[in-house]
Amino acid sequence: MTRTVTSFDGKDGPSPFGEFFADAEMVEATGNRAFVAAMLVFEADLARAQASCGLISHEIGEAIAACCNPDAIDRHELQRRATLAGNPAIPLVQLLTETVRRKSPEAAPFVHFGATSQDVIDTAFGAMAASARAIIIARSQTIMSTLAGLADTHRASVMPGRTLLQHALPISFGLKAANWLGSLLLPFQRLRGTTLPGGQLGGACGTLAALGTDAPAVRRALVGNALPWHTNRAGFQALSADLGVLTAALGKIGHDVSLLMQTEVAEVIEGAAPGKGGSSTLPHKRNPVHAVAITAAAIRMPGLVATMLSAGLHEHERAVGGWHAEWETLRDLLRIAGAATFHAERLLAGLEIDTARMRANLDLTSGLVMAERVAFALAEPLGRSAAKTLVEAACREAIAGKRALRAVLADKRLPAAIDLDALFDPAGYLGESDPIISETLARWQALQR
Amino acid sequence: MTRTVTSFDGKDGPSPFGEFFADAEMVEATGNRAFVAAMLVFEADLARAQASCGLISHEIGEAIAACCNPDAIDRHELQRRATLAGNPAIPLVQLLTETVRRKSPEAAPFVHFGATSQDVIDTAFGAMAASARAIIIARSQTIMSTLAGLADTHRASVMPGRTLLQHALPISFGLKAANWLGSLLLPFQRLRGTTLPGGQLGGACGTLAALGTDAPAVRRALVGNALPWHTNRAGFQALSADLGVLTAALGKIGHDVSLLMQTEVAEVIEGAAPGKGGSSTLPHKRNPVHAVAITAAAIRMPGLVATMLSAGLHEHERAVGGWHAEWETLRDLLRIAGAATFHAERLLAGLEIDTARMRANLDLTSGLVMAERVAFALAEPLGRSAAKTLVEAACREAIAGKRALRAVLADKRLPAAIDLDALFDPAGYLGESDPIISETLARWQALQR
Amino acid sequence: MTRTVTSFDGKDGPSPFGEFFADAEMVEATGNRAFVAAMLVFEADLARAQASCGLISHEIGEAIAACCNPDAIDRHELQRRATLAGNPAIPLVQLLTETVRRKSPEAAPFVHFGATSQDVIDTAFGAMAASARAIIIARSQTIMSTLAGLADTHRASVMPGRTLLQHALPISFGLKAANWLGSLLLPFQRLRGTTLPGGQLGGACGTLAALGTDAPAVRRALVGNALPWHTNRAGFQALSADLGVLTAALGKIGHDVSLLMQTEVAEVIEGAAPGKGGSSTLPHKRNPVHAVAITAAAIRMPGLVATMLSAGLHEHERAVGGWHAEWETLRDLLRIAGAATFHAERLLAGLEIDTARMRANLDLTSGLVMAERVAFALAEPLGRSAAKTLVEAACREAIAGKRALRAVLADKRLPAAIDLDALFDPAGYLGESDPIISETLARWQALQR
Amino acid sequence: MTRTVTSFDGKDGPSPFGEFFADAEMVEATGNRAFVAAMLVFEADLARAQASCGLISHEIGEAIAACCNPDAIDRHELQRRATLAGNPAIPLVQLLTETVRRKSPEAAPFVHFGATSQDVIDTAFGAMAASARAIIIARSQTIMSTLAGLADTHRASVMPGRTLLQHALPISFGLKAANWLGSLLLPFQRLRGTTLPGGQLGGACGTLAALGTDAPAVRRALVGNALPWHTNRAGFQALSADLGVLTAALGKIGHDVSLLMQTEVAEVIEGAAPGKGGSSTLPHKRNPVHAVAITAAAIRMPGLVATMLSAGLHEHERAVGGWHAEWETLRDLLRIAGAATFHAERLLAGLEIDTARMRANLDLTSGLVMAERVAFALAEPLGRSAAKTLVEAACREAIAGKRALRAVLADKRLPAAIDLDALFDPAGYLGESDPIISETLARWQALQR
User: Fold this and answer.
1) Chain B partners of D168 at a C-beta cutoff of 8 Å?
2) Taking all residues of chain D, what is their mean pLDDT, rounded to a whole number?
3) Which residues partner with D163 through β-bridges?
4) Which of A119, A448, C265, D273 is 20 to 30 A distant from C299 in Cα terms?
5) Using CA atoms, how far apart are residues A239 and A137, in angstroms rounded to an integer?
6) Rounded to whole angstroms, how far apart are CA atoms A107 and A57?
7) Whole-angstrom distance, CA of residue C271 vs CA of residue C349
8) How many angstroms separate the CA atoms of B256 and B254, rounded?
């Protein structure tokens, strides 16, 4: 009944989705080849660690290590055997052993000596996670630097602040950029600070029993002070969650940019590039591309983070499914978070900002957006209640008569101290925007130290 | 700053995870090549539909259709362009147009005429989903047939029924198999019955305006009576949910088999095969493999189903991210549900069942598992309260004295009508197991008609 | 160490979130009292079923049924005992038995006779789900009727179609409403059509063994032809998924309304009501409220649907955790889907539509939104390539010179047959909007029959 | 059309689920009353902060603060108004203002002065989160202390280590407990170390503009150095994720205990208590209760964590739905994580451990579980390959002949140095169990310092 398993992925060819969810750098760090290479690094390191403490001879150790070359392994054969073996380590060890046996028969029995499949695979995932994290951190730093620059540059670029998608009060684009930056600080800090799972070495049951009295020395040489963590998935879960929070914060940026790019708003626009963001049928369109990719990444992450947590109910000393469910999920999490940074870096580097349009949009409410300020200014001479009543009536009058609030108010008898010109200047009602920007930049600086 | 995008996936080689989560047949149906091929089928069908109603000439239609060959498209170039284009349809149309132009310059302007990117991509996903569903349905039928056979064969194979992982009452293995089958009936029925999204044809904004007065005829020829569904994602969401429910039901089977395979239980075991289920270090182990893969699939699906639902908040006539988040997610859902059926088919076909061990395990509680029956039998002569009191006391005595409940009861004065031999025969206390099995089989038969 | 468990919820008082996520009607159907009442209905029905087939006397049956009154049960005591008992059925049966014993001592031993905790609880959830579904279906019908009316009324209300949040082509608001309606058809149909889990009766292990030879008659009388479904969770999972898809479709409506209410767009606005949608500090704002609640509901559902699927890996004949994880989750799903319908009904009933603003917004692109149409019109006299080149150049000129596309084109030599006035009338470029609306309405009509 | 909204929750009475998912202490910290109280603390603190820097008079500040009493607010009225208001802060401010007006009319206009709804609500959630975290941390410490004790006490309690639910090698129960403890270290550390969102004060648009020149002083007095975080949800997301990882680690403990409690395994059992863990129909059962509750909690968390991440795509300066979706979700996350700790504390405190059964279960494989050790011991005299071949043959012989592996080997000619008695003593093959336990305990000690 069982159909012959044929290899496929290697012949399935390039992804039609380009680098939308997995950019070349991330694939290099987390791809199929990278994974096999990382498993082989484990086997080489294990052999060398065992040689270093005399468990095997130096020659045997080097003979094994010399064969740990991903290009010397038949990865199609590995793929074929992996299904029934139940995991990729078993066929890897078989294939590596065959290779070693051909070159140094006496070394063959010492391949993978004392280790278990999960030792190899978890260590390989740990290494891929570390590489991917480094890329993501580096990109995040670029992103945050760009945001810091935008925040500083646009301290005075007034624009409508929008709550529930309604104009509320003036803010500056600098404040918006600072808030984007501010949302990245905690996930960046956590992502950078969290302890990634180190190398895994536990042997069949997490006791390293097979290594006998050499176990402490081999363990120290191979994984330092890491304890076996076969069923302790907190490290990968925490990493996944950190990536999830980071991507959510990036997603908010992408989402905001899409909203700001709306035809009706048009305050920012993604930078143009040949072949970028056109429509297949509408000549006038300039679609968001990076913003869309970031948003899509943010939509995809939560379900994957949930899977990493759900997978955590490992049975006893090795799970029946929970561990296996992590494999591709963790890789997807790394790639998609990586893609979010890939696109965010490009989005922000090329962002075109139309400060004139921002200022102009503030007038869309004919001054209503300044009503709060006027009410507070009138509170001093008139008392808070009377001021509020007066301004609310003026707002209603302005809306009903389709007039500017300023004009309506100018018709009224207002205390002499009231300077409508000044009150209706949105630049004068940015409140704490400036110190908030400065404080956010300072925190970002502090994080970099 | 922007690094050159290099192609990667096609060079990344075979997956080290074998067919654990994506078997060859599913990859053939849903892989990168299949997707490009499906997009080209759309373009060919569109051209032919337009020719059939006279919008373009027959020659132009055939000239376009003739170029719609996935092997004539430079898929690496497609990959390179897709990232900045924002989706794979734009570069596909470009590349196809270039090909057509070389062969029939006059046909080139009519490639993709009146359609939009989402028309191509959604139609291609719909086609892949239909292929994948057909595979999954066929496999499910095999799985259900096997289960029906197990249910029928093992009507009398008594074993412990376990609630909260404690022995509760006797059941038969046939009943367990019937319950596994029963859980598949609804998802199978829904999956088979649900209306998959048909072809998509809406043009830039879902109005087909570009096709002018030919729109109705082209639409009818291409997609039948399907209405444009650019922002109507219920079809893919419903499919995803159905796959999720199906996989959950399969996952329960895998989970149960893993539990039944426990060293302490040993009532069933996965069939052996060369290279299957060994340990990389322990010679005596025979690990579950298919059961593990099914369980892992069931752990992975819920997060992906959630993503399909989360992605549904499409903006206006075309989403900024929600649609894009569906792409790989839907493909993963199809593949992982497919993998669950792939492994379940193999698991059940090879399942080794140890009915002697099942019977023997029933004795592990020294007869306590029959206590309910004895209490009910004694209720007639003694009254329910007195019977319950007597049996509970006997149970306590049996546990405290580490004796068999039957022996404890034999020491007591029981009404003459009480036949302990008969009462302690688990085969006599299977209740409605048999009619439940029969009724489940009948429902399964009815579904097949 | 164990602190005394005190009752709390009943004293915790009203929810500060009002009916945002759980409206009064849904709480009445799915609340704590409703659940206890539903469990008691099971116990009464069970006793009557057993009396009807002579397993117990008519008097005993009625004596039990008479005590099945939620107000006669000390629900605080039930709460106190439920934690350690492990589920609410055990203390319910205890309390009910105590009540029965006080009134008819001889009936007490027959309370809950032959049933298991899960029989009671699953049946109660099934009943609550049925009530909640009926409410949701009724509301959905109102919602869909309102949408049908909007679609029909606004066939000619032209507005910008927006893809990726950019103006693309003209559509009508009627088409938008029809598309909203169209997205509800499938989930409505599935929700209405799906088979809800019927009553549960399986006894301790799903075999009904305790009921002896009366089992078939009791089962028929109590649950009709339903088979025990202790570990078959497909019914609740399918219901949850259907609610998830329905809520996603409603969420898209809420999301669109929020976007259409933007200060810059202002094409629709939620109806005003006293105490509705104000800002705690800004006098001029009119915030979306129902739209926000619907969107929030749509954000909350996917995670809960995922939980229902994840919970499905039940162990053997009764789960250790998976079943328990369903309880509050299912209730939340029912309530939140209910809330989505509650708010959607009110949102749409009160929606204020500004067709003048819709028409005016179409001019924001100075005619670029009509570029596709002009290019297609010019294709006939000039050929498609020349037409496209000409229009693209005109678009660039219009954008660069900040002129209307129509004016730019008027300056050019165009074939005499070209009537720019007609071409730039968006009402003439709605394509298949009208038939799509009609067909959608027809499908909705057909569903109601 | 709009039905009158009636209050309900306060009359819906006690939860039939007892403290399964929300224990009394957590409800006290996060319940409806607690939430209203926390919102009022914000209003009182705000008034006092404004008085402290002279923005309002000391009398007015105290007059407002004096009214901030949850029992003086009509919470049913608050509930009634909250739905249409769109959030609970608006009616709270209304009701509070009415109360203040009755007592000190001149203070009424200064209630909530310069703040926005989200300031109140986010601050209240932050306070509830802080209370809940403190409870969870305290309970986690108790749990970890108990685990440390178990790990230390049971260093020599040998038991089968199980991988993929198959016996693999001997471990000690102390190692299992140490591994449970080890999995808690990272989530505990992160949960304790993460920066919770502080008080929120941003005013309508996050600029504090309404507070004018007093803004810095009010901000400092009220929230210290916290910057407005209206759209920065990383704090709550990170907290949610930490709770998710912690609960997953607890869930693994619950899951393991359920597995160890299986009738066939019976190595540990939950402590008995009156009214605990009985079956409603089977007298002999002793069901897991706390283990089940923990597992159920672990199943429920991932979906909720995903929701917190999905909700993060806030629009501009205040979200249309994303923020609202957080409210009940965050509360559920706190309660369910709290419940996991509640039940884990009780589970571990009462755990009964049967070390004799553990030792006896090791013999279930008739010595096969020691095969790896024998093979390694024979490798020295015979060489690794010969040793492996010999042992594998002996294993096959033992399995086929249903003999003990030790007996099979005793029949063979083995080198004199081979001491089968010693080799088959599982206590001698625990490898690094002891140092791993010690190191884990040391890390736990270090965390407490």
Assistant:
1) 279, 282, 285
2) 93
3) A318, D166
4) C265
5) 12
6) 9
7) 8
8) 5
DSSP class of residue A163 equals: E
Name chain A contacts of B295, Cβ cutoff 8 Å.
Answer: 320-322, 324-325
- How many other CB atoms sit within 10 Å of the CB of residue C104? 17
User: How far does Cα B279 stand from its chain's mean position?
Assistant: 28
Q: Computed from CA positions of residues C214, C217, C222, C225, in that sequence, does the dihedral angle turn out positive or negative?
A: positive
Contact D353, D157 (CB under 8 A): yes
Report the Cα B41 to chain-centroid distance in Å: 27
Q: What is the pLDDT along chain D (449 residues), one digit of tens a residue?
A: 333 333 334 567 788 999 999 999 999 999 999 999 999 999 999 999 999 999 999 999 999 999 999 999 999 999 999 999 999 999 999 999 999 999 999 999 999 999 999 999 999 999 999 999 999 999 999 999 999 999 999 999 999 999 999 999 999 999 999 999 999 999 999 999 988 998 999 999 999 999 999 999 999 999 999 999 999 999 999 999 999 999 999 999 999 999 999 999 999 999 988 888 776 567 677 899 999 999 999 999 999 999 999 999 999 999 999 999 999 999 999 999 999 999 999 999 999 999 999 999 999 999 999 998 998 899 889 988 889 889 989 998 998 898 999 999 999 989 988 999 999 999 999 999 999 999 999 999 999 87
> How far is residue A349 CA from its own chain's centroid?
17
* Cβ(D105)–Cβ(D310) below 8 Å: no
Rounded (10°) CA dihedral B331, B335, B337, B343:
180
pTM for the structure as a whole: 0.97
* Residue A277 in contact with partner chain B when CB distance is under 8 A: yes
Nearest Cα of chain C lies from the Cα of D368 at a distance, in angstroms, of 28
Contact D370, A209 (CB under 8 A): no
Q: Which uninterrupted H or E stretch holds A158?
A: strand A158-163
Q: Any bridge partners for residue B158, and if so which?
A: B172
CA triple C269-C274-C278, angle to 5 deg: 60
Residues sharing a CB contact under 8 Å with residue C322, sequence separation 6 or more, in sequence order: C233, C311, C312, C313, C314, C315, D295, D296, D299
Q: How far apart (Å, rounded) are the C-alpha atoms in residues D86 and D84?
A: 5
The answer to whether the beta carbons of residues B38 and B104 sit under 8 Å apart is no
D262, containing H or E segment: none
pLDDT digits (tens, 9 = 90+) for C61-79: 999 999 999 999 999 999 9
Query: Residue D142, class by beta-carbon neighbours within 10 Å (0-12 exposed, 13-18 middle, 19+ buried)?
Result: middle
Question: Is the separation of the CB atoms in B170 and B161 below 8 Å?
Answer: yes
Q: How many whole angstroms separate alpha carbon D115 and alpha carbon C226? A: 57
Query: Which of helix, strand or coil describes residue A332?
Result: helix
Q: Is A121 on the interface with B (CB under 8 A)?
A: no
Q: What is the C-alpha separation between B99 and B20, in angstroms, rounded?
A: 38
Q: Rounded distance, CA D448 to CA A179, Å?
A: 35
- Give yes or no for a contact between D188 and D246, defined as CB atoms under 8 angstroms apart: yes
Token couple for C110:
């027959």
Contact residues, chain B, for D264 at CB < 8 Å? 262, 264-265, 361, 364
* Closest residue on chain A to C399 (Cα): A284
Residue B321 carries which side chain, given as an amino acid letter?
A: G
Closest CA to B148 of B446, B442, B421: B442
The CA-CA-CA angle for residues B204, B210, B216, to 5°, reads: 105
DSSP for B222-276, please give it: HHTTPPP-TT--HHHHHHHHHHHHHHHHHHHHHHHHHHHTSTTT-SEEPPP-TT-
At D382, which amino acid appears?
A: L
Would you call C133 a catalytic residue per the annotation? no
Residue A212's φ and ψ, nearest 5 degrees, are 55, -140
Task: Give how far the C-alpha of residue D273 lies from the chain's centroid of Cα atoms, to the nearest Å.
Answer: 24
- Euclidean distance between CA atoms B115 and A134, whole angstroms: 42
B329 and D CB contact within 8 Å: no
A174 within 8 A of A151, measured Cβ to Cβ: yes
